[in-house]
Amino acid sequence: MKDKFIQELGNQFAILSQLGRGAFSKVYECINISTKKLVAVKIMRKYKLTTKQLYFAEQESHILQKLNHPNIVKLYGVYSTGSFLAIEMECLKEKSLAELIRKRSLTEEESSIIMQTIFKAVYYMHKSHIIHRDLKPENLIFANKDLGSLKIADFGLSTEFELGEQLDTQVGTIIYMAPEQINCKKYSETADIWSCGMIMYYLLTNTHPIYVSGDNLDKFKDKMNNIRWNFTNNVSDMAKDLFFRCVKSNPIERYSAALALNHPWINYCNNRIPMTHLEEIRLHQDKLKIKMLCIATIFLTNIALKSNTTPKICISTFNEPPSEKISLIKPRNNLTSLHIPRRKPKNNANTLKISSDNTSLLGCDLPKGNNITRSMGNLRFTRNNFNKGIYLCPINKKKSPRSADRLSFV
């Protein structure tokens, strides 16, 4: 098939590998020879297509030509030969959303990022008067590892609509179809919002609420009439609120994509501070509380030492009243006073006692004060009030006045 296709196109593409296949098409990873760009080419044999399938294939290329959004797969070209119809698109080699959900459970924050991306693309489609009609995790593919790189693909069942127009064609994947589609009633673009709600439920719970094996429409209708939404305890009320607004049975009451994008759950989760930062802030606050408590303890202790009162400190949390008063110290009257004797200078052979502390007798005035030093010739005079002395020592000695040979004036 691919060799004949390349021949008919005149060697326009170099096929590298097969990316996937559908009911009436195959998708290949190719290099466009003229642009040197890596692309995906969806190839369909015309003779295998029914009139309806051919219509949808042409409709897909027509709609993709009208759309230009970062979260919608890009169309590069459409090729028609005698035997084949080919659509050249952006190559998305990462996982689909369905593969990601099967691989691991997603957090609520991750689910919010994904749903915001989907709602942005759906809002753009509806604003461009296009209904997708087959929104499901298998048709949502990541361009790279970033969750915000999700793109809507496979517009094979999409169609254009006029404002206020009601459609009645029953197409799509049963377990993601809105009740009005299942019951063959008229529907509008709000059918896509129901599909978004089903995708959101799948993200939050990792299950589908009304899954049935195969395309058994009768079984699905029975489950739809007795549907139960079972959320785990870790799903927030805001997430549930948005979900229930997207899956209203009455399509008139159902949310639009614009309203969904302005919902608090979408905005709150996507602007939330990472938990690591919150933990750092809490840790800093705890350290600050301990520091302030220590400062308060020292401050109140000093006050108590100068008075006969016993300080009290009330310790409480932010949301609770003070529960207990804790006495930090005993009253001053119960404290034992300590006598610290002052150290006097030793009398040794190098110490001279003089009855006057007026150093002007030696030709050098040394004013009163502590650790005041004056120099005269080879001698240094130092007053030390703690030992009540004036010490004289040679300048060339590096020892302190206490340990050096000195003259003491007392």
What does this structure look like?
InterPro entries: Kinase-like_dom_sf, Prot_kinase_dom, Protein_kinase_ATP_BS, Ser/Thr_kinase_AS. Belongs to the protein kinase superfamily. Residues 13-266 form the Protein kinase domain. The protein has 410 residues and is of the alpha+beta class. The chain folds into 4 domains: 2-90, Phosphorylase Kinase, domain 1; 97-270, Transferase(Phosphotransferase), domain 1 (Orthogonal Bundle), CATH 1.10.510; 275-334, no CATH class; 359-409, no CATH class. The protein is built from 11 helices and 15 strands. The protein has helices at residues 2-8, 51-66, 97-103, 108-127, 179-182, 190-205, 217-225, 237-246, 257-261, 264-270, 275-305; strands at residues 13-21, 26-32, 37-45, 75-80, 84-90, 130-131, 140-142, 150-152, 159-160, 312-315, 324-327, 372-376, 379-384, 389-394, 407-409. The protein has a 5-stranded antiparallel β-sheet with strand order 1-2-3-5-4, with helices on both faces. Strands 12-13-14-15 form a 4-stranded antiparallel β-sheet, with no helix packed on it. A hairpin with a 4-residue loop joins strand 13 and strand 14. Helix 4 packs antiparallel against helix 6, helix 4 (108-127) packs across helix 10 and helix 6 (190-205) packs antiparallel against helix 8. The longest helix is centred in the C-terminal third of the chain and has 31 residues, at 275-305. The termini are far apart. 27% of the residues are buried. Mean pLDDT is 75; it is low at 272-276, 315-338, 348-366 and 385-410.
